[in-house]
Amino acid sequence: MLAKRIIPCLDIKDGQTVKGVNFLSLKSVGDPVELAAAYSEQGADELVFLDISATLEGRKAFAGLVERIAMHINIPFTVGGGISSAEDAAVLLKAGADKVSINSAAVRNPALISDIASRFGSQCVVVAIDARQTGGEWRVTTHGGSRISDKELFSWAKEAERLGAGEILFTSMDHDGTCNGYACGQYRKLSGMLGIPVIASGGAGNAEHIAEVLSPEGGCADAALAASIFHYGTVRIPDLKHLLAARGIPVRTTATEWDLSIKNKL
Question: Is the pTM value of this prediction over 0.85?
Answer without folding.
Answer: yes
